[in-house]
Amino acid sequence: MEPGLYDKDNNLIKSWAGLTFMGFDIEKNYGPDNVYSEESSGYRILEKRCSGTKLVISDKVVKIGSFALAACSQLTDIVIPDSVLYIGESAFYKCSNLKEITIPETVKRVGGGSLNTCKNLKKAIIKANIKEIEPFLFMGDKNLTSAGPIGSGCDIEYPDTIKIFNTGCFKDTRLEKIVFPSKIEEIYDSAFVNTNFSKIKFPDSLKRIGPNIIDGKDSKVSEITIPDIEKISPEAFKWANVEKIYIPKNPEHIPLIFFDIYKNKLDYIRTLDDLLDEGKSFKEINKMCKKGLER
Fold it and tell me: Which of 224, 192, 183, 228 lies closest to 210, judged by CA?
């Protein structure tokens, strides 16, 4: 197959030879030795390495462009070399039979939605040098049930340097367990909409929680624990079926409007001393801990 611009039936539309797009020489800048990409015509640029179920990307590739391999449903395995520095938006969108993927440490950006609607994806290891899980990155990946830092053994593994979970990044997955990065600071809107959590405890490092991060009438979250956080949207949990929201005693930063909206659901995080002051015996406390009720 000649490198060039192909339609969905793999008919050659234009050769890359001498082709330019918005001032770029496609053959030089967007050729197979540099990038897989999609241009405004809506046709994907393909070449022979995308014809089977396994794609080993050339170690001359430095960027995987937006929508580069979108809807390549035949692919079950994609091998990304250390030469790759950037992965564009929706690069692997709707690769519906992709099972596993590892993104190397050399990558500086993993574009939003790049693994969106990979419905058979069961393992994603993101070693990339990034500080953000971009919008809708894993949206619709219904075989993913856990997320945590590299080495956690979770279905999704990300670097502990992550500071931001952006809009809808885990939306419509089946996440029921998460180990937050130690440096996480911000969680944007819809990040955990339509997931399978029963309880979530947000870490003390968190500085901002956006609106509707947990939403949907089918939400299974019954308990949420939050730190004393100043920037929290009044609508963060408004549409979730949450029963209890645990907050620190005598919080200094949580906005007053938050107390007004959730007044019937709020309770306080109880320390060991609090439980002893309430007259609980160590045996009772131990029993509570075993049931996962400690606060």
Answer: 192
CB within 8 Å of 73: residues ≥ 6 apart: 94, 95, 96, 97
Residue 129 near residue 106, CB atoms below 8 Å = yes
Give the contacts of 8 (CB within 8 A, at least 6 positions apart). Answer: 43, 44
Of the pLDDT bands very low, low, confident and very high (cuts 50, 70, 90), residue 153 is very high
pLDDT of residue 271: 57
The partner residues of 38 in beta bridges, in order of sequence, read 44
Q: Which of 239, 203, 248 is nearest to 221 (CA)?
A: 239
- 85 or 125: which leads in pLDDT: 125
Own/partner contacts of 184-193, CB < 8 Å, gap of 24 or more, are 186/210, 187/213, 188/135, 188/164, 188/213, 189/213, 189/233, 190/215, 191/165, 191/166, 191/167, 193/168
Averaged pLDDT for residues 32-45: 40
Say which residue the tokens 């089918």 belong to: 218
Sheet holding 208-209, edge to edge: 132-133, 164-165, 186-187, 208-209, 231-232
Indicate whether 52 pLDDT > 70.
no
Tokens of 172: 């419509």
| Torsional sign, CA 199, 187, 208, 214 | negative
pLDDT band at 46 (very low <50, low <70, confident <90, very high): very low
pLDDT of 29 higher than 80: no
Tokens 């790049």 sit on residue: 114
Burial zone of 218 (CB within 10 Å; 0-12 exposed, 13-18 middle, 19+ buried) = exposed
For tokens 């956006």, the residue is: 210
Concatenate the DSSP letters of all residues of 10-42 into one string.
--EEEESTT-EETTEEHHHHSSTTTEE-B-TTS
